[in-house]
């Protein structure tokens, strides 16, 4: 495809979204500044920090219709809509959020926020360390889900939201939604926990460790201070993303999409890309390495590894969820082997033991972990019906 | 499982009579959640429905009923021992592959169980069998070849099943045309409602 044709396609896609009655349309990110120091789980303290966020819909008079959408590994505050100066950049959960969509912005005031340690504008390794005047780089503290949730709670304070109608997320985003219900039980009415796990399995940590080692052993990594050296560990980041991508798809989905298809129609007996799957992974790796920060990636994989609310209760998840008062919707996908339905059922079991108002749905979808981001009518109908219920509750 | 969606079924009132106010209830094979919604409104109960069907799970969410999507044939491993006051299995027993297991599971997770099922010994059913046909009625609406009901039984069969396994029957209501009967339940009863305990 010529660049002109690609550009035209890109604008046509964007104008389609802008014209669509179910898009939130053009959005503008905002920045919130916090000067009260934030103590982190690691013992470190962030003296001051910024969070970049977007909002869609209108906050109602009694501030009861706010929904916080938490992002997963590689996403950002750009959850829905497009940017005026970058109309091809569609929010990562645009199929879920908008007027008339499952999370209906004509009813709810929706907030997307880039988490601490991120690389999309919130304070993170790319930001300037006030103590040194140089970018934090490898010195940026290691963070946890709980730190993120604490920072989000301060953003809620600034926006005048005492209690969320719901906090929602998929994958690592779902861990935040669950942590909200544990940490701030009175500050949310519902928690929507999609494709989640109560902690990572050894296999999951292992994948993350491969990803981290790929980055750390890249000669351009320089202990995380690559920015000041003018180099980026792109090779490592690329491999890290390739490993990740394998785990987001199911075996069947990969077989359907790529099978053993060849890129050039025949075997060439070289180490160039021969199979379509190789080409796909390299493309995903390259795309990612061009826009994502390696230090952020390292930290976010750690955020995943550390999440384990049962840990401080001797491994007893029921005890960990003892304070939950929110209604909880738990959704899993049958072919998700990274965060399998069995792991979601552990959460459900612990919520049932605590007599929490929990609903659990297991969606029979072929797409693996990625299913939570895709259009699946059964999944979207369910989330829509749940938000209908949330809406009825706040209206009464 | 028998179609049980949307309408108020005759066994609901009988079930509600056994369920004390404010009880914690698990409704197995809950369909669209009509029974739980009814029990929530009439008896102030809390609890959950369990169903395997996507459409029923969605309908429960729309009905404001908490539902857990799960296959009853795999047991009730999500639920702890004695975590419910009542476990209800309404017009589903006869469709279960492993009847004995679900009865034991009901008594494991609940302090008491309530089952309802169409009485195969009902005289109209017997008459159809005598005429040489498998019975079809309001409570047994399927043909022999498409029925999900693989373990039909009579009132006498069920009571014998319970006696042999040390399951104590606390109360029995047998209904015909929605009204309770007092005599000849196995012959005149269309629908049986049993409240039992371990």
Attribute tags:
heterodimer, A: 396 residues, alpha/beta, 12 helices, 38% helix, globular, B: 198 residues, eight-stranded mixed β-sheet, 7 helices, 31% helix
Secondary-structure blueprint:
The complex is a heterodimer of chains A (396) and B (198).
Chain A: H1 3-19, E1 30-34, E2 38-39, E3 45-46, E4 49-56, E5 66-70, E6 97-98, E7 103-104, E8 109-113, H2 145-158, E9 166-170, H3 172-183, E10 190-194, H4 202-216, H5 226-229, H6 234-248, H7 251-257, H8 276-291, H9 294-306, H10 317-320, E11 327-333, H11 341-353, E12 358-363, H12 377-395
Parallel strand pairs in A: 5-8, 5-9, 6-7, 9-10, 10-11, 11-12
Antiparallel strand pairs in A: 1-4, 2-3, 4-8
Helix pairs in contact in A: 2-3, 4-6, 4-9, 6-8
Chain B: H1 10-18, E1 24-28, H2 34-43, E2 46-51, H3 54-62, E3 67-69, E4 84-90, H4 99-109, E5 110-118, H5 123-130, H6 155-164, E6 168-176, E7 179-180, H7 185-188, E8 191-197
Parallel strand pairs in B: 1-2, 1-4, 2-3, 4-5
Antiparallel strand pairs in B: 5-8, 6-7, 6-8
Structural class, from helix and strand content of chain A?
Answer: alpha/beta
How large is the share of residues in beta strands of chain A?
5-15%
> Which outline of chain A best applies?
globular
- Report the major sheet of chain B: 8 strands, mixed
Low-confidence stretches of chain A: none
Note the gap between the termini of chain A.
54 Å
Mean pLDDT of chain B: 93
Oligomeric description of these chains: heterodimer
Listing every helix as H and every strand as E from the N terminus to the C terminus, the arrangement of chain B reads HEHEHEEHEHHEEHE
Strand content of chain B: 15-25%
What is the percent of helical residues of chain B?
25-40%
Secondary structure tally: strands of chain A: 12
- Sheet/helix structural class of chain B: alpha/beta
**Widest β-sheet, arrangement of strands of chain A:** 1-4-8-5-9-10-11-12
Order of strands in the sheet with most strands of chain B: 3-2-1-4-5-8-6-7
The helix/strand order of chain A is: HEEEEEEEEHEHEHHHHHHHEHEH
